[in-house]
Amino acid sequence: MKKTASVITAACGVALIASACASNAGTTSSASSSPAGAASPTSVTSTTVAANAAAATSTAKTTVGIALPSLSSIIASSTTNQTVGMPSTSLNASALALGGTSKLSQAPKVGYIYACNVPHGGPPVTIPPWIDQSTNTWDATTKVAVRGSVTYPTRTFSAKASGSSLVLSGNGLPQRSGSFPVQVVDPAYQYNPDRDHVTSHTVRVTLPLNPKVASTTTCNTGFAGLMADGIPLLNGYDAGGYDAVAIETEDTCHGHPNSQTGYHYHGLSPCLLTSTARKQATQVGWAFDGFGIYVEYDANGKLLTNKSLDACHGRTSTVTWHGKKQRIYHYDMTAEFPYSVACFRGTPVAASHATGIGYIAAR
């Protein structure tokens, strides 16, 4: 098994370089615990990631985009229950097994993250009341989320096939977010609040259009992939090695910003799910080795769990890929740690300033 070199951790995991940071350009609606955003869907330039039909002739028939729900149809979680808007699961959402460095492995292992380094150096963490340390579990049905519904009229993201490559580019802004920095009057403020704004930054990632399983498995540096809305997906750890999905204070779309990474996810966002994605296997992103990231369901309509997946949190099954039903390898999102890509079966792209993927740098 191979590990990548020179890994540096940052606040909330490994950082995405913000090469063109700007001030918060969001449009805010009144703070509310309503699970759906109140903004008009016309306030965003594009709510659907689609391949450019005018791409090179050789790739014009390759469908690489992933449909997103319109702003008006987003079903976000509530500020007091993070299972709202999420797929049904066979797991007990009020007592989910807590991840952390005890679930870090030095080789691929189901239910663990095969990490390139041990997370360390994160800020002090307040253990919130939805964490039960005596049973090492957490309650997603009582986890608090950040208030507010902010939309981003200048948001951009595209997915285009170019020869043998898939080019993903955007400015790092989500369709909607909570109100960041977290306000003192927000109940979420008392639990590890983010003091950063949601800012734009250049993201341009080139992946293999048709990835192949490599001869060796690569460890996870902290980044897992890019989601359908162009927002980075980090792995299940925060900077200090805690279970990020359980511990970190996120908004009702299950994302949050920091000054190094920008707005990002650690797990599945309900705001990415169309009505179809809530019922059947659907791609929701791309891992950094080019393989798709999906939501998949068992025979009872429940989101798959770790026991159905391999050590990298993936499997081979029939899903829609590039617009066609194919039996291929891919990764899956789950409601339990490690939540997404735990290691890479393909060859992941290298961190670099040129692509907008990297580590802490002076700005």
Shape: globular
**Low-pLDDT sequence parts:** 1-24, 30-60, 358-363
Number of helices: 1
Give the N-to-C terminal Cα separation: 35 Å
Radius of gyration: 19 Å
Determine the fraction of residues in helical runs and give it as a percent range.
under 10%
| Number of structural units classed as domains | 1
The structure class reads mainly beta
| Strand fraction | 15-25%
The count of strands amounts to: 19
Succession of helices and strands: EEEEEEEEEEEEEHEEEEEE
Mean pLDDT metric: 83
Main sheet properties: 6 strands, mixed
Strands of the biggest beta sheet: in what spatial order? 13-12-16-17-19-18
Describe the protein in words:
The protein has 363 residues and is an all-beta fold. The chain has one domain. Helix content is 1%, strand content 21%. It contains one helix and 19 strands. It has one helix at 244-247; strands at residues 27-29, 96-97, 104-105, 113-114, 131-132, 137-138, 149-151, 157-162, 165-170, 176-177, 203-208, 223-227, 232-234, 255-256, 264-265, 282-287, 292-295, 314-321, 324-332. Strand 18 (314-321) and strand 19 (324-332) form a beta hairpin. The longest helix is centred in the last third of the chain and has 4 residues, at 244-247.
Break the fold down into its secondary structure elements and pairings.
Blueprint: E1 27-29, E2 96-97, E3 104-105, E4 113-114, E5 131-132, E6 137-138, E7 149-151, E8 157-162, E9 165-170, E10 176-177, E11 203-208, E12 223-227, E13 232-234, H1 244-247, E14 255-256, E15 264-265, E16 282-287, E17 292-295, E18 314-321, E19 324-332
Parallel strand pairs: 3-4, 17-19
Antiparallel strand pairs: 1-7, 2-6, 5-6, 7-10, 8-9, 9-11, 12-13, 12-16, 14-15, 16-17, 18-19
